[in-house]
Amino acid sequence: xxxxxxxxxxxxxxxxxxxxxxxxxxxxxxxxxxxxxxxxxxxxxxxxxxxxxxxxxxxxxxxxxxxxxxxxxxxxxxxxxxxxxxxxxxxxxxxxxxxxxxxxxxxxxxxxxxxxxxxxxxxxxxxxxxxxxxxxxxxxxxxxxxxxxxxxxxxxxxxxxxxxxxxxxxxxxxxxxxxxxxxxxxxxxxx
Amino acid sequence: xxxxxxxxxxxxxxxxxxxxxxxxxxxxxxxxxxxxxxxxxxxxxxxxxxxxxxxxxxxxxxxxxxxxxxxxxxxxxxxxxxxxxxxxxxxxxxxxxxxxxxxxxxxxxxxxxxxxxxxxxxxxxxxxxxxxxxxxxxxxxxxxxxxxxxxxxxxxxxxxxxxxxxxxxxxxxxxxxxxxxxxxxxxxxxx
Lengths: 191, 191
What we know:
The structure is a homodimer.
Chain A: H1 10-28, H2 35-42, H3 46-53, H4 56-63, H5 70-78, H6 85-98, H7 103-115, H8 117-139, H9 143-162, H10 173-189
Helix pairs in contact in A: 1-2, 1-4, 2-3, 5-8, 6-10, 7-8, 8-9, 9-10
């Protein structure tokens, strides 16, 4: 991580904040962790945390090295015609899962969420706040249905890319993207 | 496992067959493992394996201690009106996932499939042969779509019962079952 133009010592401070954040998110979950608390644990004030990362969400993304920041990607997915929301999400997810750079990170995240209750709890709070509630409210869709649509997407990516269940594993990307788009759109609209 | 009426030594033989089966399924996958090969590895003939377990599928179910045998449950799910297939599958899956006896086994299976490539490969071959192809062909649905429907089901169960994503985790069973039935039926019919 390059920090051109920053003063010496800033990288060390940044790293201390991330270490404190990882510990607090894991111990207390996403909801009950505050920027102020992270700062205190790292021996800096909240303004310093904001200076380095921005919001709590961004600290979380950096601390857990998430491959995407929902705050950055959601506006683009939510913009545009609602009847093509499924298509936009499918295209986005396929680009993440097809990439040899991001796929291993996503697989590791899934493993950690499924294998570790603490990780599951922390990620579910983050995912609910940063993705599900925000997208559901913006689209005017019940959160229950948005969460169900998200679960479909994860299930399909899991079957295709991780467990490699045929004929999903051998299908071409376009066919998977189309299936995913159709499923998401249906669940959002009426499922 | 009780084996009333069997001769002494039968339990030991049965156990040897299961040990050999586990080893061969893991090493060679489901497709390339034969009942004859399992028998040979356990020092018995194929008829003995059939006597104890029945088909290769049943050896697999016993060796991996699967909580359900697809050969036993599929006929009931496939019988009845096709437009209520989603409802039958949803009811069946909810009964498995809601039970404190079977849920831990399903979670362990998912963990193993996601965390271990060998387990994933073996399970995907079994799942494709014993569930997806059989159900798709019986319903006259493309296997791709049947597999997509199965992935949705696993995704929803994962979100509700393992990662516990809200509001899915807090919803009542009936609401989840209804959502699952709707999604599966749509994907089978048209998705």
